């Protein structure tokens, strides 16, 4: 039926969500509402980000977050806004945020979902006006409705995600998400306060000629990573590294490419967090026909043990990830 066709560009996010929900007769609308709540928070955070330079709320807040990283004021603002939107929305019973060590209970113990999120990744880029992003990952709870959410709700593993996505606050603000039936991309129209569908059924090109990696860590990289990066240079690929994961990821999703965050001396498991960076971005890239590895293992297959655990991330065009795997074999890594 017409619902299974890609929705026409220009559809609003609301109409798109309703149309998609109509494709699932058993859908009860909670996930749809949860996505709307996330979109609302995104609009609010977008406004704060755009005003930041003017309201002088950028710069270091002085507080340290649980990661021991210098916390930017906008980190705090974004975290509060997403938590408040999800609390008011009523669909999520708990939240795991990069900014908080423990899970945050929303008070909606009847909520069917839990959300893991990085409210504002790459916040060190704010002061220099580089694009930044929010990343979110949604699970159906496994603990009984009416009870408090548990660790198990958040440690179900990447393949149990029911939805995932990100907001990119760039030259335009875009919301990209999937509920497991393809990737949709929406562009925000400030004057109307609406997200409009700009791409439906996004597929990452199988091959690309862009690699995104911080080569300052070259001396730390395992031989198979150096082997691959050398191959990229021999092929005269383009290096593009914005230093903001969502921005690098989004460009590679549309143009083809690979993003690499390997183990380093400072971070033996890489710098990126599994539950609210690796898993959601891996969910999306597989929906878009790409691949995501943490090493020899697919990111989505990693069994999680800790809320804030890190994992290496090699993610993007399928043929580029395959070339990376060939380098593992070449360097004797058991695959
Ligand atoms: P490095 C930003 O701090 C971030 O989490 C990602 O957005 C980005 O891709 C990466 O870290 C940059 O890390 O070590 O290359 O500066």
TrEMBL record:
**Would the keyword Metal-binding turn up in this protein's UniProt record?**
yes
Q: Which UniProt keywords apply?
A: Carbohydrate metabolism, Cytoplasm, Hydrolase, Magnesium, Metal-binding
Q: Which reaction does it catalyse?
A: beta-D-fructose 1,6-bisphosphate + H2O = beta-D-fructose 6-phosphate + phosphate
Which GO terms label this protein's molecular function in UniProt?
A: fructose 1,6-bisphosphate 1-phosphatase activity; magnesium ion binding
Where can this protein be found? Cytoplasm
- Name the pathway it acts in: Carbohydrate biosynthesis; Calvin cycle
* Binding positions (substrate): 121-124, 214, 241, 259-261, 271
What is the enzyme's main class?
hydrolase
List the InterPro entries hit by this protein, alphabetically.
FBPase_C_dom, FBPase_class-1, FBPase_N, FBPtase, Fructose_bisphosphatase_AS
Q: Which residues form the Fructose-1-6-bisphosphatase class I N-terminal domain?
A: 12-199
What is this enzyme's EC? 3.1.3.11
Q: Provide the residue positions that the database annotates as binding Mg(2+) 1.
A: 98, 118, 120
Q: List GO BP terms, alphabetically.
A: fructose 1,6-bisphosphate metabolic process; fructose 6-phosphate metabolic process; fructose metabolic process; gluconeogenesis; sucrose biosynthetic process
Q: Where is the Fructose-1-6-bisphosphatase class 1 C-terminal domain?
A: 204-328
Annotated positions binding Mg(2+) 2: 118, 121, 277
Q: Report one GO cellular component.
A: cytosol
Q: Which SUPFAM superfamilies match?
A: Carbohydrate phosphatase
Cofactors demanded by this protein? Mg(2+)
Q: Which residues form the signal peptide?
A: none
NCBIfam families of this UniProt entry? PRK09293.1-1
Self-association or partners: how does it assemble?
Homotetramer.
Q: Name the family.
A: Belongs to the FBPase class 1 family.
What is the protein name stated in its UniProt record?
Fructose-1,6-bisphosphatase class 1
Q: Which organism is it from?
A: Hymenobacter aquaticus
Recite the lineage of the species.
Bacteria, Pseudomonadati, Bacteroidota, Cytophagia, Cytophagales
Q: Which gene encodes it?
A: fbp
């Amino acid at each position: 039926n017409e619902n299974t066709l890609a929705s026409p560009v220009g559809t609003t996010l609301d109409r798109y969500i309703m149309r998609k929900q109509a494709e699932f007769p058993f859908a009860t609308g909670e996930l749809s509402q949860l996505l709307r709540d996330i979109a609302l928070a995104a609009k609010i955070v977008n406004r704060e980000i755009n005003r930041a330079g003017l309201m002088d709320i950028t710069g270091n807040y002085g507080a340290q977050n649980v990661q021991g990283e210098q916390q930017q004021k906008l980190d705090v603002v974004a975290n509060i806004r997403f938590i408040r939107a999800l609390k008011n929305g009523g669909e999520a019973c708990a939240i795991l945020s990069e900014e908080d060590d423990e899970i945050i209970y929303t008070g909606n113990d009847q909520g069917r979902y839990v959300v893991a999120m990085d409210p504002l990744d790459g916040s060190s880029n704010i002061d220099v006006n580089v694009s930044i992003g929010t990343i979110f990952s949604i699970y159906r709870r496994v603990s009984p409705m009416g009870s408090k959410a548990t660790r198990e709700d958040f440690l179900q593993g990447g393949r149990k995600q029911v939805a995932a996505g990100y907001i990119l606050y760039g030259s335009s603000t875009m919301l990209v998400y999937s509920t497991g039936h393809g990737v949709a991309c929406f562009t925000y129209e400030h004057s109307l306060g609406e997200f409009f569908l700009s791409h439906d059924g996004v597929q990452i090109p199988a091959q690309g000629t862009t690699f995104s990696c911080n080569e300052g860590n070259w001396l730390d990289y395992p031989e198979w990573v150096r082997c691959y990066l050398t191959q990229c240079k021999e092929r005269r690929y383009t290096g593009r590294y914005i230093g903001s994961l969502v921005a690098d990821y989004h460009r590679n999703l549309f143009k083809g490419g690979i993003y690499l965050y390997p183990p380093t001396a400072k971070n033996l498991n890489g710098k990126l967090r599994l539950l609210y960076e690796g898993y959601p971005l891996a969910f999306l890239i597989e929906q878009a026909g790409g691949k995501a590895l943490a090493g020899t293992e697919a990111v989505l297959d990693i069994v999680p043990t800790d809320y804030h655990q890190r994992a290496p991330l090699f993610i993007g065009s399928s043929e580029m990830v395959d070339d990376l795997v060939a380098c593992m074999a070449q360097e004797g890594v058991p695959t």
